[in-house]
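tokens incoming
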């Protein structure tokens, strides 16, 4: 295999939280999910598990925050003036908004935690940050 070629893994999966809540799944009818292994298109713990599996194998894995979405970071919770946010006057606690920053190519999502006077506090941590994740995986193809 050439250095610029990466194996394509095809798989089915279901992701759950500690309490059993399903947060993501590809178990509905249709084509399996695919990813290029070694390109870091998915969280490291999941990719590492796929790289260690054989076609046809099913596996239950647990991924710590270190190998998933990291830990909740206080510095990712930001306070801003509502007047500086487009349609900021419409924001309410619990809203999820997308914002562009000078540090990100794509807009990032944040959840409005608090609104007070002309200010809003927004959490830009990934919703799964700090959580241990549980996955059922079935590797169905590797090319």
């Amino acid at each position: 295999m050439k250095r610029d070629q990466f194996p394509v893994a095809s798989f089915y999966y279901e992701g759950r939280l500690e309490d059993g809540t399903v947060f993501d799944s590809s178990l509905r009818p249709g084509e399996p999910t695919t990813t290029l292994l070694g390109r870091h298109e998915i969280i490291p713990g999941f990719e590492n598990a796929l790289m260690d599996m054989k076609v046809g194998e099913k596996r239950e894995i647990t991924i710590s925050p270190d190998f998933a979405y990291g830990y909740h970071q206080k510095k990712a919770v930001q306070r801003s003036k509502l007047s500086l946010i487009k349609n900021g006057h419409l924001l309410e606690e619990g809203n999820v908004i997308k914002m562009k920053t000078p540090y990100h190519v794509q807009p990032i999502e944040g959840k409005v935690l608090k609104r007070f006077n002309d200010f809003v506090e927004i959490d830009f941590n990934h919703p799964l940050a700090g959580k241990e994740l549980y996955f059922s995986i079935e590797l169905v193809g590797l090319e």
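note: The chain is about 5% helix and 40% strand.
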